[in-house]
Structures are given as C-alpha cells and as structure tokens.
Specification:
- Helix 7 links the parallel strand 8 and strand 9.
- This protein folds into two domains: 198 residues, Isopropylmalate Dehydrogenase; 140 residues, Isopropylmalate Dehydrogenase.
- It has twelve helices and 14 strands.
- The protein is of the alpha/beta class.
- The structure holds 3-isopropylmalic acid (IPM) and magnesium ion.
C-alpha cells in the first residue's frame, strides 16, 4: 500500500510535534510494510510570512490530491493583530471549507495512567471516560452569511448568522449515529432548541435520521445543560453530536475533563474513505507559542492523530492500534512531557517522546 500525505506543520510547536509524528509514521512503514510519501505545504502564520496568505492556493491544490492531511497547529501572537480574514485561523477555516471537512471527530478519553490530570474529582473519573464529540465543522455561525460589522442608528454593530441547511444536519447526524453504532450505541444530540429556531430544525432532522439507526439510543440535551453534565457526570456520555460553535466549546470542555489537551487527537472528514472522502488529522491543542522551539511540547496528540489517520483514511487498523499501544506503553513506563507531569515520572522533551514511541512500536 502506498499513500500520499500532505503535511502542514504550521506555527509554534506545530513543526516540532509533526516532526516526531513523521518519525512514527516511518516506523509504521518499516513494521507494517506500507509506504508513505510526505509533501510539506504552508498554512497559517508560516504561510502568511512566506506568501501573504494563510492558505495559499498551492496548499489547497496539494491537499486535494492527497490521500490524507496531517496538520500541526496554527496561530501565534505575531499575527494576532491582523484582520480576521488574514489571520492564521482563517487558513484552518479555509481548508475545512475547501476540503468539505464537515465531520470533526474529537475523542476525549481518560488514559488510566493520567487519570489524576482530570480537573474533576477522582470519583467522577475513576470508572473511565470515553466520550466522542462529533462536531459539525463547515456550517453554523462560523460560515453563515450575512456576517459583518456596520453602523446602524449611529451605533457600531456586528453580526454573524447561525444557519443550518437540512442536508448539513442530516449528514453530520448520520456520522454521529454511525459512530455510536461502532461504540456504545448511545447518541446525545446537543442543541438550544428552547431558544433558537436553528435548534428546532436540528432536532427534527436528527430525529428523522434516528429512524435509519433504530438500535442507537438517542437523547437530546440543551447545550447549557450539556456543559454542566460534562462536569457533573461525564461518564454518562458515549457520543455527542452537535453544531460547529457548540462543538467548539464542548470539545474543549471534554478535553479538560479528560485531562490534558496534550493527549487529544482529532479527525476532520469529508466522508468515509470508502466514499472517497478525505481526512485531515490534527491535535486538538493549539500552537503553544510560549514553549515553541524549546523541545518541551507533547507530540502524543499528533501521534495519536496519525493513528486515527491510519485507521480512518487508510484502513490500517492493526498499525493504528499498534501506535496507540506504543503511546500507552511510553506512559506506562512513566515518561511524561511537562504538560502531563503530575505525580512524578521521568520528565522528557518532545524529541525524546517521539523516540520512545518509535522504540515501543518497533519492539
Ligand atoms: C478548534 C479551534 C478553531 C475553531 C480555531 C483555531 C479557528 O478552536 O479547532 O477548535 O474555532 O474551530
Ligand atoms: Mg476550539
């Protein structure tokens, strides 16, 4: 098997965590007899500095031809004062739209070795937490038109449009139900239909799609209650499906509940690989400019994102599991980057973490 991967290292710690992940993918080639070609492209602040645009045409073209895309992180203080459309984040939003990556999968799992990192009381997490947030990624207030800033009645005002089309809700609902079928068969759909008409449409479409997946137990929750339930009783959740803005917020919250942002991978998909969909894989954490270039970053979330790539885009289930197991074994052996160092262990840097995962994988 030969696969072409476009690599977008991005900004801050992005290039460091991506470099470690490429080492792990090289080890996967050796161990599993597969072959990857890597093509680096510019996105985010790095692209702004080199070309003036956060998402150069050449990057979009390269990604469209790839079998999968691996992204580090984008953004940093250097570009914070640019107008929204020129910021590094616009590159991220742009690639999501260009590749039609409407389904964002963010698993939030507590690694038993790292349970003490959860911000919650031990009794709330001791039975494990395994939540999958399925976030719609190409609609909602993020992209709704009209959006802008103007003067009305002599006062400055700004507006974004929360809008969903039924087909957008239908396809993400299907992803949520399908994911639930492959796991605990429970899906919680999150909306704000007590206030927003968008939520009413959302809920009615989700109920319609439920008929295609009768084995899945469906529940509905208002987003404010969901934010509270994630803290009060996170173990109640299996899969959560929700819109773009609510998913943005709830997935960060689920990450804090799980422990460290430094451990969480994500997949953004335009459909299943079988349907010709493409996937972009990235850690949930950001570019952490404060520790960039110091070999302090935790590469495990990016390495785990590569594992998702192996499984979801390439169907290499054994290789994916092997990478995940290698990460677990490094944690079990007590190695920790600074962000996940709490109850002792051996402090390691980014490069060492990558080396250890490779070593564990090739054992
Ligand atoms: C995320 C991030 C992005 C988002 C930002 C960086 C544009 O917070 O992927 O969750 O809001 O989607
Ligand atoms: Mg976010």
């Amino acid at each position: 098997m030969k696969k072409h991967i476009v690599v977008l290292p991005g900004d801050g710690i992005g290039p460091e965590v991506v470099a470690q992940t490429l080492k792990v993918l090289r080890a996967v080639e050796t161990k599993f007899g597969v072959s990857f070609t890597f093509e680096e492209a510019l996105m985010g602040g790095a692209a702004i500095d080199a070309t003036g645009s956060p998402l150069p045409e050449a990057t979009v073209a390269a990604c469209k031809k790839a079998d999968a895309v691996l992204l580090g992180a984008v953004g940093g203080p250097k570009w914070d004062n640019l107008p929204n459309a020129k910021r590094p984040e616009a590159g991220l939003l742009g690639i999501r739209k260009e590749l039609n990556l409407y389904a964002n999968l963010r698993p939030a799992t507590v690694f038993p070795e790292l349970a003490s990192l959860s911000c919650l009381r031990p009794d709330l997490v001791q039975n494990g937490i395994d939540i999958l947030v399925v976030r719609e990624l190409t609609g909602d207030v993020y992209f709704g038109q009209p959006a802008g800033e103007e003067v009305r009645d002599g006062k400055r005002c700004a507006f974004n449009n929360m809008i969903y089309y039924e087909d957008e809700v239908r396809r993400i609902a299907r992803v949520g139900f399908a994911a639930a079928m492959a796991r605990g068969k429970r899906l919680c759909s999150v909306d704000k239909c007590n206030v927003l008409v968008v939520g009413r449409l959302w809920r009615s479409i989700v109920e319609e799609v439920h008929k295609e997946f009768p084995q899945v137990e469906l529940s509905h929750m208002y987003v404010d209650n969901c934010a509270m339930q994630l803290i009060l009783n996170p173990a109640q959740f299996d899969v959560i499906v929700t819109g773009n803005i609510f998913g943005d917020i709830l997935s960060d919250e689920a990450a804090a509940v799980a422990g460290s942002l430094g451990m969480l991978p994500s997949a953004s998909l335009s459909g299943t690989a079988a349907d010709g969909g493409i996937g972009l894989y990235e850690p949930v954490h950001g570019s952490a400019p404060d520790i960039a270039g110091q070999d302090k970053a935790n590469p495990l979330a990016t390495i785990l994102s590569a594992a998702l790539m192996l499984r979801m885009s390439f169907g290499l289930n054994d290789a994916a599991t092997a990478v995940e197991t290698a990460v677990r074994n490094v944690l079990k052996a007590g190695y920790r980057t600074g962000d996940i160092m709490k109850d002792g262990g051996t402090l390691i840097g980014c490069t060492k973490a990558g080396d250890l995962v490779v070593e564990a994988l090739l054992k």
